[in-house]
Amino acid sequence: MAGTATVGANASDNIRNAMNMLMEVALLVGSISQQLRWRVIPDLYRGCIYFLNDPWAVRYRKWRHRSWQ
Length: 69
Known about the structure:
This is Inner membrane protein. The chain is mainly α and 69 residues long. It has one domain (2-67). Helices cover 91% and strands 0% of the residues. It contains two helices and no strands. α1 (2-38) runs antiparallel to α2 (42-67). The longest helix is centred in the first third of the chain and has 37 residues, at 2-38.
């Protein structure tokens, strides 16, 4: 029975991590789309997309690799 508590804890941790990552993506997409509506400095938007997306993608790839092991 001790093993089931561990499995339940891992499942809830995975769900919690997935919800946090979904919120990060939603905030990223929402903030970028809002900035693109202003059309003030187009190069700034490309830089924001690159610098915000790259660290998130690296962290996501590490998380996906860890979750499948």
